[in-house]
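Long-time lurker. I teach an intro course on protein structure, and each term I like to show students one example going from raw sequence to a predicted 3D structure in token notation. This year I'd like something fresh instead of my usual example. Would anyone be willing to generate the tokens for the chain below so I can use it in lecture? Attribution to the forum is fine with me.
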Amino acid sequence: MKTTLPKRNELFPAMGAQFIKGTKFLFFSMLTSFCMLISWTLTAQETQVIKISGDKDKFAEEVSNVQELDVDIASDLIFNLQPTAYIENGSILKITGGNRPVTKMIVNDIHSLGILNQKNEKLQKTELLVLKLSNYSDLAQPIDLSELENINRLKCIFLQCSFDCQQEDLQSFLLEALPGIKVFYSVSTPL
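-- Reply from a regular --
Happy to contribute to a lecture. Here you go:
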């Protein structure tokens, strides 16, 4: 005599359908999570920070492997005289260059960064932001580069460290890489 086992759906008729629905739900949940993770990874780009010596004659060689950089424009902004705004203690100390638009902004202390979020017609055409960092504690409050929307022509950021700063520290200090903006730094420790 041959015994036959009942089929699974005869024993638990509703369970088969539930199992299939649960599997589909799990699959689509995992797929959605994976897509969100990939999207987040692509948008949270790390800011590339390039060390330079601060010597105009060495600049072209130091940045030769940087993609999408107009070396002449960057060199001109960093090393040549430009209409400049000097910022300290949260206010504009002086502006040089007569009536020409400011293309270079030098921020002498980390506490003056708030001025970058203020709408100021004099500073809107800034192409180079020079930020002077005096010690490691200056790196404690990161800067979100995506919030620099009031400076719509920014091409370069130049971090001048008067301590032995490291590239990794500066990458953590600068949040949200902005396409097209190059970040340079130099170290000049006092004797």
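Some talking points for your students: The chain has a mean pLDDT of 79. The radius of gyration is 27 Å.
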